[in-house]
Amino acid sequence: MPQAMLKGDRTLYNQRTKKYLEFVGEYELIKKKLHPDFSQEQLWTKARKIDKRNFLKYYNRYKQSDGDVTSMLPANGAQGTRQEEQILRLKSRLVS
């Protein structure tokens, strides 16, 4: 479990992982063509109001981690380093 989750409230963690585990189960039924309500992924994603690309990103992480639930949580992006690079560029422009 990520360190940030250990310190704070686990409600969001529990809600997100529970929801995505349900989505994974439904998605696998659709892939096997056994889902009672949906025969295509497109219909399922529209009905559940989820972005297919985002779901597949978390689904693939989940599968690659051998079913580790914490892999469905958003990972930290590299936004901090981009911002730091921009700040350094601005500082170099101001100095010169």
Topology:
Elements: H1 3-7, H2 11-31, H3 41-48, H4 52-64, H5 79-95
Write a structural description.
By secondary structure, the chain is mostly helical. The chain has one domain (3-95). The chain is built from 5 helices and no strands. The longest helix has 21 residues, at 11-31. The protein is elongated and about 65 Å long. The N and C termini lie far apart (46 Å). The mean pLDDT is 83.
Low-confidence stretches: none
Helix content: 55-70%
Count of separate structural domains: 1
Shape: elongated
> Helical stretch count?
5
- The end-to-end distance, rounded to whole angstroms, is 46 Å
Structural class label: mainly alpha
Q: How do the helices and strands follow one another from N- to C-terminus? A: HHHHH
Q: Strand content of the residues, in percent?
A: under 5%
**Major β-sheet, in short?**
none
Mean pLDDT: 83
Number of strands: 0
Radius of gyration: 19 Å
What key attributes describe this structure?
single chain; 96 residues
